[in-house]
Amino acid sequence: MSSSNETAKKEAEREALYPFLDAYALATGQRLELVEDGENPDFICVRPISEGTPVGVELARITHGPIKAHWDRILDGKVELEAFDAQALVFELIGRKEEARATRYVQRVKDCMLVLQLEDGSLHHVRHALDGLESDFKDHGFSEIWIADYSGLDAYGNVELYGLYPAKYWGFHERPNHDSKPYG
Length: 184
What we know:
The chain has one domain. The protein is of the alpha/beta class. A 7-stranded mixed sheet has the order 1-2-3-4-5-6-7, sandwiched between helices. The mean pLDDT is 86. The protein starts with a helix and ends in an 11-residue tail after the last strand. The chain is globular. It has 5 helices and 7 strands; from the N terminus they run H-E-E-E-H-H-E-H-E-H-E-E. It has helices spanning 3-28, 66-76, 83-103, 123-126, 153-156, and strands spanning 33-37, 43-47, 53-62, 112-118, 144-149, 160-165, 171-173.
């Protein structure tokens, strides 16, 4: 990949991080401040409340690929992952990213969270597939795992979160303006 493509990709990743950081602060009461872009993990942030303790943030997209998305748009007019397909992709991504965390990320930062970006669908559509799975997300080394619903970003300017791990953050964290109409 050319350096201009890599730069554009990193810029898009950084732009995707900020809505998560805002939603994270609302859901947890803790702010994370970006201090470094990188790779392995994607970002290094600090938790100011704990005197600047570094935390890695790795972003991964939950998507079913460009060909399926293309046909969904043609046939259904929208892209919407089936709930249990999204569930399977969550488990697959956690496994794949855990391997990367254990072999590469820990060399840069001990504490690392995983953010799974849901773009092909919404949490309202897939969250029932996560019901009852609280104990299924504990066998990894991530300090936190979140699903971030980016489907409302353009309309509402923010994302909603679903905490998968640890248990204290389990479940759906609705955006504060969920009932307001899009575009103001």
